[in-house]
Amino acid sequence: MPAMQIERLLHAQGFGSRKECRALIRAGYISVAGVPCENPAAEFDPGSTDGRPGLEFSVDGQPWRFRAQAYLMLHKPAGYECSHKPTFHPSIFRLLPPQMLTRGVQCIGRLDQDTTGLLLLSDDGQFIHQWSSGKKRTPKVYEVTLKHAASAELIAALLAGVELHDEPEPIAAAACVATGSHTLDLTICEGKYHQVKRMVAAAGNRVEALHRSRVGGLALDPALASGEWRWLEAEDLARLADFPPEGS
Ligand code: URA
Asked: Is the beta carbon of 138 within 6 A of some atom in ligand 1?
């Protein structure tokens, strides 16, 4: 990436309009690699053309690294909606720094307000499209807590396929294993509305709690507490794409 004026660079990272970024610089809020910078036209090499961390700078003492694209994982808590215009609960975007909203970060697929676990977000339109499309048949693993016992019949029904209202064909779990008397790990390759809850209901049981632990080959980072987020690094993106073809 060619050198960029600091004003453009801050704007690209979501720190406000060009005018707002110019004002931040002139007011002395910005340092680049530890050196104060009050000239909006000063040029720097951003040091990254993708999601990798590049140039170090700070805004009002807060350290940042330039990233041409944003790829994130969030440990979604219960009681948050995956929407910019939530209806009954706060938006998950409140859990991210405001720059993420300004730079257009979106959820990749949605989790229900009461579902917890791994949520991916990005501002890379192609990436969002690729990973939210059902065509890719990305396996997603859910830890399901059930109202009634995780019986062999329930597991057999989910693996064989259940009829869902509005779906022309039965939908089958890609994998399903009991992990306790009332818990399952259920893997699905679609991303239909309330899919896990509807599948479990169609098989005669009821979801009491739902947690997504994995998308593709990428697991929720155990170091992330509920409500915390982190950047996805190159290794995470490689892991995400690393899953065996269906049926193997
Ligand atoms: N299936 C559901 O029913 N809810 C979710 O949040 C995700 C998958």
From this structure: no
What confidence tens digit (pLDDT) does each residue in 32-57 have? 989 999 999 999 999 988 889 999 99
pTM for this entry: 0.94
Each as own residue / partner, the long-range contacts of residues 111-114 (CB below 8 Å, 24 or more positions apart, any chain) are: 111/76, 111/82, 111/212, 112/194, 112/197, 112/210, 113/78, 113/79, 113/80, 113/81, 113/88, 113/89, 114/78, 114/79, 114/209, 114/210
Whether 248 maps to a domain, the answer reads: no
Domain that residue 77 falls in:
71-135+217-240
CA quadruple 183, 205, 212, 215: dihedral sign: positive
Catalytic member of 45, 50, 60, 112? 112
CB atoms < 10 A from the CB of 102, how many?
A: 16
Query: Is the Cβ atom of 221 under 6 angstroms away from ligand 1?
Result: no
**Phi, psi at 186, each rounded to 5°:** -120, 130
For 139-159, write each residue's pLDDT tens digit.
Answer: 999 999 999 999 999 999 999
For residue 95, give the CATH number of its domain.
3.30.70.580
